[in-house]
Design a protein that fits this description.
There is one protein chain. Helix 1 crosses helix 8, helix 2 packs antiparallel against helix 4 and helix 4 packs across helix 10. The chain has two domains: about 300 residues, 3-Layer(aba) Sandwich (Aminopeptidase); about 110 residues, Alpha-Beta Plaits, CATH 3.30.70.360. It starts with a helix and ends in a 7-residue tail after the last helix. The longest helix is centred in the first third of the chain and has 25 residues. By secondary structure, it is α+β, with helices and mostly antiparallel strands. The structure holds zinc ion (2 copies). One zinc ion binds next to loops.
């Protein structure tokens, strides 16, 4: 396609975004998607506000899962509840044979007391780590659930024209302890086996933008724990023991050289942070042990393995050089979220159809997501949906007590996920040539 035609097409779809839906010339189902998404939008907003006002912490999403299950059943979708805890799986058979695509939304809120000034602000409290806390959809998962419920309505309505199967994965506890892994263990990605999996996450970038990245998109997040064992002695006679405090200081510096000297940073970034250190209780006593706790983030599975090995070698070797011992344990958290490069390239035109030039490449993020587990089971694509308001005073990062989602993004999200599914299943994403 020439650049002139491309600009023209983008302009047309920009109009489609904010005005009447336009039928696509390349996939006849696009017009249907856009019309049905517009028709269900008021309902999506209502669901979103209701879910926002009634957030639930991870693995306690009983009300939300109930809403989801009831809605899917009302559409004639096959529903399984209690998957991996409070997860819900819906299976929609299209009218013709074809591949299997899965769409995922996470349902959990966070232990955050809402301060956003909206009429449907959460007043919910819950017990968390032995304390009464406010609960809020501070990461915007209320939007994800409402959008995917809307997508279910759209695709159910046009099921006769959909070749293949759509699986709806409503998962618990993304914010921890994780709901994707137990859902997979319960067979969510099998029967029928999923060929590709998509998800979106809201972000405070402007409404009308969708960002994506090939390959490592979100980091792996692993816990690091190092116990340095020396030998206790008087602080005035350090030669009488082995000082774990001086050893720990060397280890912390050494760990930073794992990242700066041993990782190919041109290939993929990495982070090693020690966020907590405990040892000793008096200035003139050298203690027996020091405990250090930290986090390791990487954006490439190979880098992750390498950093784990090198961190362990560095800590153990520095300790040994001081006559001490380091006991290193790495608590594996969420893996790297990897967007399948071929799938990403294949689906970018679908995103462009929705937001035109608002579909942009994003830098890697050092946060983590358990969508990564689904993307280990089938080629995956995880995109960011801009929900940032025009008024900058309303724009706050995810997890903020002021987090605010502009609802104009909801129909964009519905159209995006529905189009990803349909374009994948028909093998006919609009092409740019
Ligand atoms: Zn979050
Ligand atoms: Zn989130």
């Amino acid at each position: 396609m020439s650049s002139t035609r491309r600009r023209l097409t983008t302009g047309l779809f920009f109009v489609a975004l904010f005005a009447a839906p336009a039928a696509s010339q390349t996939n006849p189902l696009h017009g249907t998607i856009d019309e049905l998404a517009a028709a269900i939008n008021d309902q999506v907003v209502t669901w979103r506000r209701d879910i926002h006002a009634n957030p639930e912490l991870g693995m306690q999403e009983f009300r939300t899962a109930g809403l989801v299950a009831e809605h899917l059943e009302s559409l004639g979708i096959d529903v399984q509840t209690g998957v991996g805890g409070t997860g819900v799986v819906g299976v929609l058979e299209g009218g013709r044979p074809g591949p299997v695509v899965a769409l995922r939304a996470d349902m959990d809120g966070l232990p955050v007391t809402e301060l956003a000034d909206v009429p449907f602000a959460s007043k919910v409290t819950a017990q968390w780590q032995g304390r009464e806390v406010g609960v809020m959809h501070a990461c915007g998962h209320d939007n994800h659930v409402a959008i995917l419920m809307g997508v279910a309505s759209v695709l159910a309505e046009m099921r006769d024209n959909v070749p293949g199967t759509v699986k709806f994965l409503f998962q618990p506890a993304e914010e921890g302890p994780g709901g994707a892994e137990p859902m997979i263990a319960d067979g969510a990605m099998e029967n029928p086996k999923v060929d590709a999996v998509f998800a979106l996450h809201v972000a405070p970038s402007p409404v009308g933008t969708i960002s994506y990245r090939e390959g490592g998109t979100l980091a792996s997040s692993d816990g690091l724990r190092i116990v340095v064992r020396g030998t206790q002695t008087h602080g005035a006679m350090p030669w009488g023991g082995v000082d774990p405090i001086a050893t720990s200081a060397q280890i912390i510096n050494g760990l930073q050289t794992v990242v700066s000297r041993q990782v190919d940073l041109t290939d993929s970034p990495a982070i090693v942070t020690i966020g907590q250190i405990e040892g000793g209780n008096r200035g003139n006593i050298i203690p027996d042990t020091v405990l250090m706790i930290g986090t390791i983030r990487t954006l490439n599975p190979d880098t992750r393995t390498l950093v784990h090995e090198r961190v362990t070698r560095m800590a153990e070797s520095i300790a040994a050089a001081n006559g001490a011992e380091a006991e290193v344990s790495i608590d594996l958290g969420y893996p790297v979220t990897v967007n399948d490069p071929d799938l990403t390239r294949q689906m970018v035109p679908s995103l462009r159809r929705i937001v035109g030039d608002g579909a942009t490449l994003r830098p890697p993020a050092t946060g983590a997501e358990d969508f990564s587990y689904f993307a280990q089971e089938a080629p995956g694509l995880f995109i960011s949906l801009g929900v940032g308001a025009d008024d900058p005073s309303l724009v706050h990062p995810n997890h903020s007590p002021y987090f605010y989602a502009d609802e104009r993004a909801l129909p964009i999200g519905v159209r995006a996920l529905a189009s990803l599914a349909v374009d994948y299943l028909t093998g006919r994403p609009i092409s740019e040539d």
